[in-house]
Amino acid sequence: MIDKIYKHFILIDKCADETRIVEILDKKIVKFISWFGNNIPIIGNIYDAIIIKKLNGGIARAKIKNKTIVTVRGVPQSIKINSQIKIIITSEKFDEKPIQAKILLSNSEYDNKLVNLDNLEKIIYLYFTKDIPVVKDEHAIYWEVLELDNCFLKALEPKIELDEGGIIWIEKTKAATLIDIDTGKIKLNNNVDTLDFCKKVFVKCIEEIRLRNIGGMILIDFPRMPYVYKKELHQYILETGKKYFNDGTFLGFSKLLLYEIYIPRSIALLDSFYKNIDEYNFQNHLRSLWRKSIEVKSKNNIDFLCGINLYKKIKTKKTPTFINIVQRTELPEDYGELMEIKK
């Protein structure tokens, strides 16, 4: 069945305690969102709100019934302070910044598209590429076959080596994300070569920004070049960047010769979905139990051997009823292994 999977599709994996939605292109992760239990993101929720302050550019602050303050975009000039409006949430709360939302107007695109969608469908519509196939995988089989865990871990590395040569370094700070472009062993003979290299590497940068869910202020340190070439690069970034982030602002080169970008963030940073490697490994243990439950022909005599720590955690979770969770004190504390007992 995996041979029939689409080149570009969205995978919904609701295995164990975790729900993951991932967009996959050519067997690589493009976008990702995840949550545990019933803690579904508020993206896509619709609320009544009251305008409490108007800012420039069609932006306003509004308050919903539970007194939460949100930033609302797309507010017409005709709407005044204290007006009642209907909004749709487009982001979670990050770095103590207000939740982001868009105003819903009569007969608007969002009213027409979202009114009959469930929570998962709303998130997919608002955040992922539209009009591509959606595949549901309740046992994480596709996730394993496509080796998406490796894609996930690779996406968290700060160093990205480019196929054509050169290196990108990504470092996240509280104030901004810094991206350094290192030409490495590439020999750039003139300014035209440098400009061409920068155009190619910018596309890779923007793909990494989207994959890692990076938002806020982003500073890119390109190789130095004369003003006329920087001007052409800026124009290319404007045109190309808007294809990926139509709500992004591509500000140009600063006095420090760093290229400045601002992108409103929709969901949490990719590395926040797993607080540490222990949690990552634990969730993979859970998913392995459910994968095994549809692989075995005889649903008897299947043991999952656990060290002490893993046993304590996994016994509190829902697991397939015919797989026996067995504690083994002689094993390492976080060790886990599936074993089919032959009669």
Characterize the structure shown.
Helix 5 (191-211) packs parallel to helix 6. The protein has a six-stranded mixed β-sheet with strand order 10-11-12-13-15-14, covered by helices on one side. It is built from eight helices and 18 strands. The chain folds into four domains: 2-40 and 128-152, no CATH class; 46-123, OB fold (Dihydrolipoamide Acetyltransferase, E2P) (Beta Barrel); 156-270; 283-340, no CATH class. It is an alpha+beta fold and 343 residues long.
Quick structural gist:
By secondary structure, this protein is an alpha+beta fold. The chain contains eight helices and 18 strands.
Secondary-structure map:
Layout: E1 8-13, E2 18-25, E3 28-36, E4 46-54, E5 59-64, E6 69-73, E7 84-89, E8 99-104, H1 109-114, H2 119-127, E9 134-136, H3 141-145, H4 148-155, E10 159-161, E11 167-172, E12 177-182, H5 191-211, E13 216-221, H6 227-244, E14 249-253, E15 259-263, H7 277-295, E16 302-306, H8 308-314, E17 323-327, E18 336-340
Parallel strand pairs: 1-9, 6-8, 12-13, 16-17
Antiparallel strand pairs: 1-2, 2-3, 4-5, 4-7, 5-6, 7-8, 10-11, 11-12, 13-15, 14-15, 16-18
